[in-house]
User: Fold Aldehyde dehydrogenase domain-containing protein from Anopheles epiroticus.
Amino acid sequence: MANPNQEIKYTKIFINNQFVDAVSGKTFPTVNPSTGKKLADIAEGDKADVELAVKAAKAAFVRSSTWRQMDASGRGALLWKLSTLMERDANVLASLESLDNGKPFPNAMYDVQGSIKTFRYYAGLADKVGGDTIPSDGPHFTYTRKEPVGVVGQIIPWNYPLAMLAWKWGPALAAGCTIVMKPAEQTPLTALYMAALSKEAGFPDGVINVVPGYGPTAGGAISSHPEIRKVAFTGSVEVGKIIMAAAATSNLKKVSLELGGKSPLVICEDANVDQAAMIAYMAVFENQGQCCIAATRTFVHESIYDQFVQKASELAKARKVGNPFAEGTVHGPQIDDTQYKKILGYIEVGQKEGAKLVTGGKVVGNEGYFIEPTIFANVTDDMTIAKEEIFGPVQSIIKYRTLDEAIERANNTSFGLAAGIVTNDINKALTFSHAVEAGSVWVNTYLAVVNQAPFGGYKQSGIGRELGKDSLEGYLETKSVSIRLPAKV
Assistant:
């Protein structure tokens, strides 16, 4: 049951299975984006706190530690136990997520259930990570071992706080690593609650550490720390480049980056317009448009363009914006004042550059950070709203003539995270799927992210993959062992 008055129990840094104040004694506010008012003061971690967290994580990773001596199936059992505790406290987690992030409560609960499934997927994979035996030349027995990289740093965003935590913790723990995580400063509440659940589940001291704080300080300390062996980041391209540079200049730590997108969704002339408009609607307005895979470039065939724009407008106008805890709300606020003003700025630029504002574009209410679902028509590829990631509820509908043209224009971007096509022609579906430069491609659907399939991007949308078996590779080293055998007799 949704609880807009949910108690906030955990506001301190979590190191070595204990909640502690920041070394500096500093705190920072986390704000409810529905009201713009402070929810709680959170301990502000920085370099000193990261140092303590790394020390704890290193101690938990020594060969003789409880964690390193634990069977792989034991790690899986702990992950499963954590998922059952999340199930027990699902209402608490979802309420905290809605308060801190602003997403409607049913969406927050969907994220909770999805995160439970993520942990259970990796619980099942924990004892299935193995190497190979290799038929090497000469009198040798050769095999490979998969070993955890060690202490890993993880920096997660504010748009899907709990889901991104699960995407990071799941494979790292299944692989046997220890963790120092920094949640986004806008949304630390569910990460700190999960830290408490991890202790209750029985994870040994130092295996999981959570240091809330700001990117340049806490995040910078993680990405440049010489004893962290891998850093995983989800967020903007700009910050991803900073993290990659810090990883290179510190100790050449492994890096996985899941970054931004400007994803295309191509609507073919044979598509059912009602169905296509609904797919596009969900693809762009999900999570208030604060979604890295949002299909903000909607390419529509010229023969159905006007009909599609009309239908898209009807859907956007009917979308209920408001209090995340109110029944029937499907669209909450933007995350904070900075993002709110950025989105409004893009809407203004879109109009100045000649795009047709079909619907939306205005603020909603007199408190919080609410913006109407917004649709632009007559958008051209050279417009700012067609090129830059807005990260808000803004759909740009673009006209095209041929599929080849649509593919070329879809690929004409520095991003490559996701793409989609709506068509009843299997040849068009396969041609597009094979030609488009994107890590995830969806046909007659969108946002079909599943735990079993790898997720990540081409080009500046990132390095490495989340989810699926592929994500484990970023947390593992491969060791080759060769043993000389006795000579034949």
About this structure: Residues 264-443 form a domain with the Aldehyde Dehydrogenase; Chain A, domain 2 fold (CATH 3.40.309.10).
